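Handout, section B. The chain below has 356 residues.
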Amino acid sequence: MTDPATSPWQSAEAVWTSSERAVEMVRAIAGAPEALVGQTPKDLVWRKNKARLYRYRRDVPATRRTPIFLVLPLINRAYILDLRPGASFVEYLLGEGHDVFLLDWGIPGDEDRAIDLTTLITRYLPRAATAARRAAGSDRLTVLGYCIGGVLATCFTALNPDVARNLVLLTTPIDFSDAGQFGRMTARGTFPVDRLAETYPVVPGLLPDIGTKLLSPLQSTVGTYARLWDRLADPAFDVSAWQAMYRWVNESVPFVGAAYRQWIVEFYQDNRLARGTLEIDGRPVRLADIRCPVLNVAATADRIAPRSTTSAITRLIGSDDRSEELVEGGHVGIVVGRTASRDLWPRVGTWLGQHD
């Protein structure tokens, strides 16, 4: 029989309770909800219901002629592209001389239950884009969408081809015929999307978050804290950077039931966008109508938007100017990870400079 005093649990408990690193770990996790994020100064330009369009301040006038219109995912906090000083894609774009606008969809409530993707694409995006163009004094925008925001940006650009001078997509799923694990999890006959939409006027953010974590359950749960424990041993480890990302990962946003059902049924299950059968407010969404220059950015280790979903855009659009950048890393890491400022951002910056 194992002596309780020398059992593995007692040994682990002794290490934990006597370790300064354990105290540091508790402090890091407990302090994450208050981490400073989204600090780049900005001004409100336009609002509709919960949605807000912001224009980031510049100390000097923009040197690039085409404003950038950032379209964010519906289920994530918008500050991911402005995470913190030194880890901000917005900060980088400003430094490159761009006029930058960001559309933050906000946090929906039960009163928003009828808002679907059609409403966002035909009533929110056009008005926000008009407000951005008016504020910047420009006829055209570079429309840049991230993940689900990229899908909305793509549909918007296809329906409004005269608005976008350029379209940039970051880890954006377009073809759902082979959508990986997410596709299998949300398959018709397997996933009760109708019941969910009927039960929840606004689907709790925890549900999509659980789905994402189930793609790599050990790594995204226990692994998160195991990696933190190891990294705390490094004197150069930036705890505040970890806290900012941890806060974002755990601040999920509810998904309006009507929009959620449309997203699962029309995109994941029916694959209407890639098949050319998607209609928005009675109008067909034809990817071939996108004739502006397009940059498609994909991640090599993306479980959320695998290559099978992101690669189709360059063969389906009507533009002769189509480029693709394949970046080492995962869905979020390539955009705001430790190597983003040396890898993704300069690649996008170079392309934007060539298409201003």
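Note. The radius of gyration is 22 Å. Compare this with the example in section A.
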